[in-house]
Specification:
globular; Rossmann fold; 7-stranded mixed beta sheet; 279 residues; 7 strands; alpha/beta
């Protein structure tokens, strides 16, 4: 009986075939994931849950570009810090409600009740939101330790400086994040030629000082973006003179409206994959 020998391919040929066959799959999957994230984010930004006054501020706050820069995905566990009236919550909650998780870390006072009333009024979009407390030093368990993929804080750090609890907050962010998790910070950016006011009484914080605050808590800077920069803002006034606050009322209103919202830094940090002790 004649024995037929199997066809033998050289090893390099088999490896080449494997690379050709397999390498497009992860690339295609990644591209699909990115496209899916962008589509879901665009839908959340355009959704009917957003108020018209909030939509009008997109031209200053650039939510699509900002959240994309931070690397958000609909499957993440995200903590938003001190959400105020919920400007970003209107986007984050519908984005994350089906496949992710959203914690909202709020302080005390009437603002907290107003925010929670907002959530209760729209269970379709906000029923899955988990509200936690951020009142240092005792109440800073903003999410289970090591559970969050991302912590986000928008225009808050300048307020904390006056109360001397900034490091309590940054340490809380660090505890909540998984190793490799992202901290995204947006805040009013001070003139770098001027010394940093330790209590930021005009509402502006130097970018290098903000980076130092995060690094002291153990974070590593991985990116800085000019997405929310505004060169019209000369930062020679309290930030509250500008919209949306317009604290001076009709005085210089046109001037401040022409400037628009403040010049802002947009910084991305990570909790190191191999956890280091904060300094």
């Amino acid at each position: 009986m004649q024995v037929k020998h199997p066809i033998r391919f050289p090893l390099y040929a088999l490896l080449a075939l494997s690379i050709v066959a397999l390498s497009p799959i992860p690339a295609a999957r990644a591209a699909g994931d990115d496209a899916g994230t962008q589509s879901a984010l665009a839908a959340a930004i355009a959704g009917p849950q957003r108020s018209q006054p909030n939509r009008a501020r997109d031209k200053y706050r650039h939510p699509m570009e900002t959240l994309t820069f931070f690397g958000i995905k609909p499957t993440m566990t995200v903590v938003e810090i001190s959400p105020g009236a919920g400007w970003y919550t209107e986007i984050l909650a519908p984005l994350l409600k089906d496949h992710g998780k959203l914690y909202e870390a709020v302080g005390g006072g009437p603002g907290a009740k107003t925010f929670q009333d907002k959530l209760k009024a729209d269970p379709t979009d906000y029923a899955q939101v988990i509200v936690t407390t951020l009142k240092p030093p005792a109440e800073t368990d903003i999410a289970p330790a090591g559970s969050a993929d991302m912590v986000l804080t928008f225009r808050n750090v300048h307020d904390w400086l006056a109360h001397g609890n900034t490091q309590d907050y940054f340490k809380a962010f660090y505890r909540a994040l998984k190793p490799g998790g992202v901290l995204g910070v947006v805040d009013h950016r001070a003139d770098p030629s001027q010394p940093q006011d330790p209590i930021a009484k005009n509402g502006y914080v130097r970018q290098d000082y903000m980076i130092q605050l995060a690094q002291q808590a153990g974070f590593k800077l991985t990116g800085a973006s000019e997405i929310n920069a505004n060169p019209k803002d000369l930062r020679d006034h309290p930030v509250w003179y500008l919209p949306p606050t317009l604290r001076l009322g009709e005085k210089d209103r046109d001037k401040h409206l022409a400037i628009g919202e403040s010049d802002r830094m947009t910084l991305k940090f990570i909790k190191p994959p191999t956890e280091a002790q904060p300094h």
